[in-house]
Amino acid sequence: MRKLLAIVIAAGMLLALSVIFAAAEAPKGGTTAPAKASETSENKGNGTTQPASGGQVYYLNFKPEQAMQWEELAKVYTTRTGVPVTVMTAASDTYEDTLRSEMEKAQMPTLFQVNGPVGLRTWRDYCLDLSGTALVEQLKSDEFALRENGQVLGVAYAIETYGLIYRKDLLETYCALPGAVITAPEDIRDFATLKAVAEDIQRRRDEVGVLGAFTSAGMDSSSDWRFKTHLANLPIYYEYKAGDVNVSDAVQGTYLDGYRAVWDLYIHNATCAPTLIGGKTNEDALAEFALGEAVFYQNGTWAYEGLIEAGLEDEQLGMLPIYIGAPGEENQGLCTGSENYWCVNRKASEADISATIAFLEWCITSDEGRDALAHKMGFVTPFRTFGEEYTADNPLQKAAADYLELGKTPVSWSFTTIPSETWKNNVGAALLEYAQGTGDWEAVRTAFVDGWAKEYQAANER
What we know:
The longest helix is centred in the C-terminal third of the chain and has 21 residues, at 441-461. Helix 15 (350-365) crosses helix 16 (367-376). The chain starts with a helix and ends with a helix. The protein has 19 helices and twelve strands. Helices cover 42% and strands 13% of the residues. It has two domains: 17-159 and 338-393, D-Maltodextrin-Binding Protein, domain 2 (3-Layer(aba) Sandwich), CATH 3.40.190.10; 161-336 and 400-461, 3-Layer(aba) Sandwich (D-Maltodextrin-Binding Protein, domain 2). It has helices at 2-11, 37-40, 67-81, 95-103, 117-123, 134-137, 168-175, 191-203, 205-208, 225-231, 233-243, 256-268, 282-290, 304-309, 350-365, 367-376, 395-405, 421-436, 441-461; strands at residues 57-61, 85-89, 111-114, 145-148, 151-156, 160-167, 212-214, 294-300, 317-320, 332-337, 341-344, 409-411. By secondary structure, the chain is of the alpha/beta class. Strands 6, 7, 8, 9, 10 and 12 form a six-stranded mixed β-sheet that branches. 52% of the residues are buried. The chain is globular, with a radius of gyration of 22 Å. Helix 3 links the parallel strand 1 and strand 2.
């Protein structure tokens, strides 16, 4: 993973964010026997696939942030080619369940995504070998392909970054106060400083003009992934780093004290009491941040459009690393990686497979496709076809690039190796009970450590 990130650095952080969907009907068309890409597409000299006559595309995607943009791009492609493209939205935190349901239908998706090796393990039987397509040929590195037994079964299409988004204007107001812990955001380089700043802002919230240092840590399904997955990444990452591994059948919980420390910081220095977070949503957190009620908001580059739509401006936004008190974290950058891998359904009809590959190749080579992915959706992509003119430009992406330029080491997305959704849900439930005072931290540790071994074993027995 660190090698992958180094390649992203060298490429210059092309485009940002994630992707996604729009509610629509599933397309018509049956399924036939599995086929390889080489059997259903004709690769021309320019790497563009010619769709088979009568084919269509049904795209089930993962995130709702770019639903409208994907719908619009699908319409453009249909107007250009006559090939029907349907984009369907899965509700937040329901993608796996939705995909499982859709795959049981006669009109199953022709295009879907997995989050990495763990997701591939579940859906490998549906994944077409994409070798020989422009999707693979245009990748900047093999590190962006999910390979198994010599086949390319998935291709990453969006490189993302997350951390602590902060309100520059509010943090500057705090820094100007007499006795402030720091004089500039750049002074926050470790957990100790972050804690001192957050607790001081909480004590002086009337002077700063906020309700809390952090937005509410909502634990409903629209928000809990920020903590049971993205925040949980930090102790996993540091344990992997110490053991020089990229995946493991068991974790020891070596850095769970840091996980607890940052969770305590979030819930005790926020816009609401810890006992209320069970009813808070990600929309609540975004609104609190946009209204200037909080200084810090844990989220990622994919949140940029929503923040702008909520009324914020570029100059108000910055992003800091999430610190947990780990050794050497002063050299840590933001959390950067991908859990967005396109997969083409090998069980779709030959015509639909051809149409789907052609659509994807058009997305990464045409002016309309590249403009939509880079500028309208804000993706950082791993394809060579995206030059400087197709590079996303927003303050959250700039923050990621700035940390790279400073020589900070990005935090890998180790959470893509989490053994199951059940593990995440059990950790999330334990976090909530701990925050509400109805459970203790030992329950979190048990869900984290014992739950990992149990879920890993169960996943590998299937």
